[in-house]
Amino acid sequence: MAKKNEAEMPETTNGFSLLNFFQGTREELEKVVWPSRKQLVSESAAVLLMVTLSASLIYLVDGFFTWAAKQVF
User: Fold this and answer.
1) How far is the CA of 26 from the CAs of 2, 40, 48, 62, 63, in angstroms?
2) Which residues of the chain have pLDDT under 70?
C-alpha cells in the first residue's frame, strides 16, 4: 500500500523554490470561489452586528458586576 501512495505523489526537490511557491499559490487562488458583492456586504454587516451586540452585552454585564461589587464592598 505504501508503494501506491508513493506512485501518486509527485516528486519534490529539496529546498525552497520561489517560482514553485508562486505557481502553487496562483493555482490555489484559481480554485477559490469568491463571493459576490451582495453576499460580501450582507455577511460583513451580519458580522459587524454580532460584534456590536456581543460588545454591548459584555459592557452591560461588566457594568452590572461593577455595581454589585461596589454594593458588597
Assistant:
1) 30, 22, 31, 47, 50
2) 1-13
User: Are 43 and 35 in contact, with CB atoms under 8 Å apart?
Assistant: yes
Whole-number Cα distances in Å, 14 to 17, 32, 58: 9, 28, 51
CA 67 distance to own-chain centroid = 37
Question: Are 49 and 41 contacting, i.e. CB atoms less than 8 angstroms apart?
Answer: no
For residue 67, CA distances in Å to 50, 59, 62, 73 come to: 26, 12, 9, 10
Query: What is the radius of gyration, based on Cα positions, of the chain?
Result: 26
pTM attached to this predicted model? 0.57
What pLDDT does residue 16 have? 85
The total number of residues written for the chain in this structure: 73
Q: What does DSSP assign to residue 12?
A: -
